[in-house]
Amino acid sequence: MDNGSEPPYESAWTYKENVGYFYPLKTLYRNYKDPVLGLMHNDVFIFDDKWPEKVLECFEKHPKLGMLGLAGWEFMSPSGEVDGMKANFLPGSFQDNPLVIHPEGLDQNISCLDSLFLAVRADLIPKLHITSEILPYHWYDRIWSLFTMEQGYSLGVLGLPFEHIGGQTALREEKYTELALKWCKDRGINTDDPDGSIYREGKERFKEYAEMLIGPPKDQTN
């Protein structure tokens, strides 16, 4: 889809406006009957011609694998803080800090996946709280990770070499800002910082889901 990136990419569907991340996933779910569906940001480049086969092989070999990514974290707190990133970023990617290079293969010791690439079992999608009220961006990958584990599935990072050229999906900055402003306006949120408002809303929602699914933080229990 055209989400304001440069240069534009060809796709099976064209949206007249930036609709965020979850609408394309719903479109895939409604139009395809494949057992595994995936979405990748259009500024991610995987340097392995066999990556689709390797992704599908992981799901075939591991029936309890619910969602797979290229980057994720070992630890995620009840408030959504993450630590211990696993990824095979190539030099030149936008990340400032050196990361643990994840070896080739599947790591299921993961608590949260990064949305830059997500492959998910199709029968799990209806259980990921994908509704019209989900945020257009920010925190949905943490929320989906939480719901995947709550359903009894594991998360996994596949150590494929890739590059994430950050910023490409928002070079036409007005597209990104327009989406945030529209989301806030539709919900009666008057703000000069729509991106920050969405981020804070996502963080609060995550905390609510975490408390609903795993209970309140220990220091708040009686």
Describe it.
A hairpin with a 5-residue loop joins strand 4 and strand 5. The chain has a single domain, classed as Alpha-Beta Complex (Spore Coat Polysaccharide Biosynthesis Protein SpsA, Chain A). The strands form 3 sheets. It has a 5-stranded mixed sheet, sandwiched between helices. It has a 3-stranded antiparallel sheet with strand order 5-4-7. It contains 5 helices and 10 strands. About 2% of the residues have low confidence. Helix content is 30%, strand content 19%.
Q: Mind describing the biggest β-sheet?
A: 5 strands, mixed
Topology as a string of helices (H) and strands (E): HEEHEEEEEEHEEHH
What is Rg? 17 Å
The CATH topology name reads Spore Coat Polysaccharide Biosynthesis Protein SpsA, Chain A
Which consecutive residue ranges, at least 5 long each, have pLDDT under 50? 96-100
| Terminal residue distance | 49 Å
CATH architecture: Alpha-Beta Complex
> Number of DSSP strands?
10
Strand order of the biggest β-sheet: 1-8-3-9-6
List the total number of helices.
5
Oligomer: single chain
Q: How large a portion of the residues is in β-strands, by DSSP E?
A: 15-25%
Helix-residue proportion? 25-40%
Number of domains: 1
Please state the overall shape, judged from the principal axes of the Cα atoms: globular
Q: What's the average pLDDT? A: 78
- Assign the CATH class: Alpha Beta
Classification by helices and strands = alpha+beta
